[in-house]
Amino acid sequence: MNCQECLHKVCAISRLRPDELERIGKNCSRVRYKAKEKVFKQGTPASHLIYIKSGLLKSHFIESNDKEIIIDLFYDNMFLGMHSIYTGGVHQYSATVIQDAELCFIESSAFRDVVINNGGFAAEMMAATCSDSMHVFHRLRSMIRKQLPGRFAEAILIFSDEIFMSDQFTLPLSRNELAEFLGSTRESVTRTMTEFRNDKIIELNGKDVRILTKELLKTISELG
Amino acid sequence: MNCQECLHKVCAISRLRPDELERIGKNCSRVRYKAKEKVFKQGTPASHLIYIKSGLLKSHFIESNDKEIIIDLFYDNMFLGMHSIYTGGVHQYSATVIQDAELCFIESSAFRDVVINNGGFAAEMMAATCSDSMHVFHRLRSMIRKQLPGRFAEAILIFSDEIFMSDQFTLPLSRNELAEFLGSTRESVTRTMTEFRNDKIIELNGKDVRILTKELLKTISELG
DNA sequence: TCGAGAATGTGATACAGGTCACAGTTTTTT
DNA sequence: AAAAAACTGTGACCTGTATCACATTCTCGA
Predict the structure, then answer these.
(1) pLDDT (0 to 100) of residue A1
(2) Are B218 and B212 within 8 A, CB to CB?
(3) Most buried of A30, A82, A129, B63 (most Cβ within 10 A)?
(4) Could you tell me if A176 and A193 are in contact, meaning their C-beta atoms sit under 8 angstroms apart?
(5) How much of chain A exceeds pLDDT 90, in percent?
(6) Are the C-beta atoms of A118 and A133 separated by less than 8 Å?
(7) How confident is the model at residue B8 (pLDDT cuts 50, 70, 90)?
(8) d(CA A142, CA A158)
């Protein structure tokens, strides 16, 4: 497996020495996934860390009833499953593909070996993990303080600024998944969306979104 | 500063070599704090990592209005501020003492040096950080799915099982702080509490709590 | 190509809990 | 010891959004 090509993209990987890169590469397999495929399931043994070469995934909790809760979204050049690797070796959440993805499965023992032997790499991974966690902490804040329009505006901004880097994009989530991401229900999300369209804040056509007044979106997101 | 005595309490610290322990110890100062004192404030430079020798603290976001949001609670033998150390060197949240505490301030550059040079220590710190983050992820889940009685029951169980290790304890939070922890308001928390008392689930006298039917609490917490 | 199941929009209704107002109590300050 | 400030309980009211029910419209496999 050729990990070289990921070198320039992920800061942490550039910290690896050639032999470590090989150690990881040898215990790493790249796999293509299609949308809706489950990558790993909460409760199963966490044998691998996932590196996302391309695509979009969600981490989510499985609930007793049918509803799920999306913890966060993961995309190009991110690692997924760190919390599971370091918490008893059992997956703490599920991961499912949202948009076709290319994933590298890194054997967790190989990964841990490298962390132990290379503190610089460990530090970079720590930084990445802390950053990911902070993102969820802010989502906690949003859930508590903001009401639906604020949370929806925030989500649109995340798609626009963090994921697609464009004011115009196709929503990768169904209305139902959007509800799971926003901690709401399908119906309420629908209503909020038509509301936003009527108010000329976004142009909305099925899953196609175009942001009309980004400033207003920011205001709504901040005021909740 | 004598870090030896913390050695047997915190797994990560036992990974340190004598010289590293000294490096940390030299750049570490222990300070007593009284309840309500602020340890660090969101937005300020993150120069130190906090080790909690004893006491109870909260990490919290500061909101534009007066209300706060308690992200999580920290107590004996936990580290606080890891996310800030590894995310741009600025504190990502505030930390305030709830019950008188003894804190060790570990110089962040010394800490980072040790992490880089000692992968075993890095791995342990990663484990601790991931575990703390997972706790917040579960709180996110609770905020979204459960309603107030469920969240309150959960909080009582956290106090009982994770913090005080007893069915009988004195609430360390005011009604208002409890509301900030539960993502609610003072009034609603009060009402929920009297409800629980009337239903003979807990005995309640000011801040003194005694759990009467733990099983019921668990059920309420799980069903939301 | 057709049918079945999933995804979406929309109305009517219910209710958990936020907000406001006020009173009593406890704690802190001077 | 008096005054101020913070904390707590309780009632009345209002609102955001969950829930239920149904009609349409897509999607994709047989």
Answers:
(1) 57
(2) no
(3) A82
(4) no
(5) 82
(6) no
(7) confident
(8) 13
Q: Which residues of chain B does A131 touch, with a Cβ-Cβ cutoff of 8 Å?
A: 86-87
Distance CA B142, CA B162 (A): 17
Query: What pLDDT digit, counting tens, does each position of B164-179 carry?
Result: 999 999 999 999 999 9
| Residue among B42, B41, B70, B46 nearest B56 (CA) | B70
CA-angle at A181, arms to A57 and B217, nearest 5°: 115
Q: How far apart are alpha carbons A195 and A181 in whole angstroms?
A: 19
pLDDT in the model for residue A215: 96
pLDDT tens digits for range B53-85: 999 999 999 887 778 999 999 999 999 999 999
Residues by CB within 7 A of strand D: list them.
A 147-149, 179, 183-185, 187-188, 192; B 174-176, 186-187, 190-191, 193-194, 206-207
Own/partner long-range contacts of A186-193 (Cβ < 8 Å, ≥24 apart): A188/A148, A189/A148, A189/A152, A192/A148, A192/A149, A192/A152, A193/A152
Contact B87/A131, CB-based, under 8 Å?
yes
* Gap from B206 CA to C24 C1', Å: 14
The dihedral over CA atoms of A31, A36, A42, A48, expressed in degrees to the nearest 10, equals 10
How far does the CA of B190 sit from the C1' of D10, in Å?
10
Give all domains of chain A, ordered by start, each with its CATH number: 4-133 (2.60.120.10), 146-223 (1.10.10.10)
Strand B79-80 relative to strand B38-40: parallel, antiparallel, unpaired? Answer: unpaired
Q: Which residues of chain A have pLDDT under 50?
A: none
Tell me which H or E stretch contains A157.
Answer: helix A148-157
What's the token pair of residue B218? 């668990």
A123 Cβ neighbours under 8 A, 6+ residues apart:
B86, B112, B115, B116, B122
Q: How many angstroms separate the CA of residue A18 from the nearest CA in chain B? A: 18
